[in-house]
Every structure is written in structure tokens, then in C-alpha cells.
Amino acid sequence: MDNIDLQILQMLKSNSRMTSSDISKIIHLSVPSIAERIRKLEKKGIINQFTVKLNRKAMGQNYVVYIFVQLHSSAETQLFRKTIIQSPHVLECHHTSGEYDYLLKVALPDLSELEDFITNTLKTNLKVMRSNTFFILSTLKEE
Amino acid sequence: MDNIDLQILQMLKSNSRMTSSDISKIIHLSVPSIAERIRKLEKKGIINQFTVKLNRKAMGQNYVVYIFVQLHSSAETQLFRKTIIQSPHVLECHHTSGEYDYLLKVALPDLSELEDFITNTLKTNLKVMRSNTFFILSTLKEE
DNA sequence: GCTGAAAGCTCTATAAG
DNA sequence: CTTATAGAGCTTTCAGC
Questions:
Q1: How far apart are the C-alpha atoms of A54 and A71, rounded to whole Å?
Q2: Interface membership of B137 toward A (CB under 8 Å)
Q3: Residue B35 CA to nucleotide C12 C1', Å?
């Protein structure tokens, strides 16, 4: 991966609908070369996905919270992982170092759904030992 | 925004290079209709950005950490915000409720750069009062 | 690995119903 | 919203460096 690849990635990051010929006009390289470089970046897994960033408020996701979670035992891990991955409310889930086991980033339309998520999904269904929730008041930056 | 818009958004989320005619073959609506719907979704700000998800490891970002940050006083806020937004290492920055003021998500190539970021950028330059760092060991889900 | 040109195809924009 | 059309623009391929 050379400097030209980095430039291409940067352009696609700012607008993934750019075509090879768009990019060709900016960096001086022929269209077929750029098309092939993009294909290779995808194939090598450097580009994971072409996607869109959506406006959460517009999508009715008015609350975004982080929830630290500690599980009882590793016996619960399987169900926990499966449920979390499938839940449409969970934006991210990381296994973390420190006091807790996992950190979830969760988007919800209202507080009653948050209550439901913590009480039913986490505590009851997933047998989470303890959790710690804090709210995102505003976001300065989110890539 | 109706159900068709939601379907279009879902498809673009899974692959933002889909064209109107690609989408037209899946949901039964003419190409001009879909093209116009996408334009409106962009104009309304429901679609914030067309972008790519990159593989962090492949980009040399071997460590991703969360850092909670507490500022001394609101006098430091301006510089803090400006610096954070410009820093290429900072993936996200949220103003949060709870014990700390901000939560940063930071990607770095190695531990010495992490040390540098905490010691120099945060503590020295930005006069951060205290911080609390924890590591992401692995990621189950990240939209 | 890159360039340039040609072929064919696909997309977008527009107009009319 | 649909269909139809025209024109612009894209991707791919291939020969040659």
C-alpha cells in the first residue's frame, strides 16, 4: 500500500460514491489503474465496506448511551454475544480491559426503551451481573 | 420517510456503491423514483455521508482505546474541542454525563504513541485534569 | 504496473402522462 | 409515480510500453 492508495482511501472515505474517473481527475493516474487499485483494496480487506452515515436523530434514535457490562461467568458469553450482535439498538460492542467486561454503545428512541433494554434484555435475558450507563449529551466528532 | 426509504437506506448502508438501477431491481420502483428519493434523503440530512469502513489493523492502527477526560474549567473547552477535532488519532469525541466530561475513542499504531497522546496532547497541551484509559481487547460489533 | 483508446453498456436527467 | 428517450459518462478490455 503506497501513498497513492492512501490518497484514494481518503477520497473514498469522504465520499464513497466517487467513481474511478472522478478520482482520476484529482490524482494523476489513469482510470483503469484507479479502478484496479480500489478492487485490490477491497480484496485485501483494507476497505471493509462501502457504507453511509445516517443522521440518528432523523432516524428516531434520540438517545445514544454507553453501557458498561459485567457478566456473571463465561457461561453466559455465548448467548450474550449472539443477542448483542442481533440487536438493532446496539451500535457497537467491545470487549474491554478494566473493571467491566464489555462496553456497549446503544441507540434508542426514548427512555422507556432504554429502561426496557437494561431491565429486560440485559438484566433478565442476558443475566448481566451489573451495568453502568452514561449518556452522550452531544457529539463533537464521530468518524 | 416511508418504508421504501427505509429499505433504500438499509441497502445503501450495506453497500453505498449500489446505484439506483441496482436498487430498482430489488424493490419494485422505477429508477428515477429511487434516484430522487436518494437525493431527498441526502438533502434532508438523513444521509450524512457516503463513506467507507476501513480495516484499522491494515491501516496500522493496532490499538483502539477509550479515554475518559475531565477538564479543569470551561476556559479550556475551546482549545480542547479544536485540538480534538483536528487530531487524526481521535475517532470519536462525545460530551457525556457522569463522572467525567468527555469520552474519546482513539486509534494508535503503538503504545509509545498512546503515551505521547496522553502525556503531551492531553495532559500538557490541553491541561486535562484527569483521564482514565481502557483498552479495547476485541470488537464484536461496530456499525 | 501504467497508459491510452475503443467498445459497449449503464446511468442520469428530462419530458410527458 | 411511471415509462421513454437522449445524451453523457462510466467501466472494461486490450495492446503496448
A1: 31
A2: yes
A3: 9
